Amino acid sequence: QKEVEQNSGPLSVPEGAIASLNCTYSDRVSQSFFWYRQYSGKSPELIMSIYSNGDKEDGRFTAQLNKASQYVSLLIRDSQPSDSATYLCAVNKGGRDDKIIFGKGTRLHILP
Amino acid sequence: NAGVTQTPKFRILKIGQSMTLQCTQDMNHNYMYWYRQDPGMGLKLIYYSVGAGITDKGEVPNGYNVSRSTTEDFPLRLELAAPSQTSVYFCASSYQGPTNTDTQYFGPGTRLTVL
Questions:
Q1: A43 contacts on B by Cβ (under 8 Å)
Q2: pLDDT tens sequence across B12-61
Q3: How far is A105 from chain B, CA to nearest CA, in Å?
Q4: pLDDT at residue B101 in the model
Q5: Is the CB of A43 less than 8 angstroms away from the CB of B103?
């Protein structure tokens, strides 16, 4: 099992709808979780970070973490064409193995 | 505050040539990272450093070397370039501290082609 798994997509969502991006991770001791957005030809930029179970909201973005199910998701409300990008899930185990592992990313396409 | 800067932006190498990709950050971050990203793929960690003088291997270190003599700089060295090293290389930095805030900030990337 890969350490961080995401559906590669593309995920097509109509403009104004909710886009739901999902990520699972294999190491139960993982402590920090991140969502990055990457436009084509650009570097990744942080959208959200989450460290404890539950929901964390920031504007149109909501990150959800369920450590028991080893699952983290990102919801984008009122999707805009500018949200079309690849979304990378990243996980940091912390402790002695303190490095961040990225998933392959999900391509999101917002349909005008 | 320039953040994370990388040079060069683009480079074409011949097989067997060597080069150094430069990375500098001005945020006083203790952690620095090198990733490669192949087309349509995620980021793979090559090497990382938790502070000056300390480096460690990531997922795909073969064919690369790094050094960290200062907090600001983390160069990546390719000794004998191979076509399999054609990729986009991203440098990143983060601050790890008592609060464990570890957001990574990325440089703009270096697009390397080995022919």
A1: 90, 106-109
A2: 999 999 999 999 999 999 999 999 999 878 899 999 999 999 999 998 99
A3: 6
A4: 57
A5: no
A4 contact partners, CB below 8 Å, separation of at least 6: A23, A24, A25, A26, A89, A90, A91, A101, A102, A103
Higher pLDDT, A30 or A82: A82
**Hey, which residues 26-85 in chain B have their CB within 8 Å of chain A?**
33, 35, 40-45, 48, 50, 56, 58-59
If pLDDT is split at 50, 70 and 90, which confidence band does A89 have? very high
* Nearest residue on chain B to A102, alpha-carbon basis: B43
Mark out chain A residues that contact chain B at CB-CB < 8 A.
8, 31-32, 34, 42-46, 49, 51, 88, 90, 92, 94, 98-105
CA dihedral A35, A37, A41, A43 (to 10 degrees): -60
Q: How confident is the model at residue A39 (pLDDT cuts 50, 70, 90)?
A: very high
pLDDT in the model for residue B100: 59
Q: Given phi > 0 = left and psi -120 to 50 = alpha, else beta, which region is A60?
A: alpha
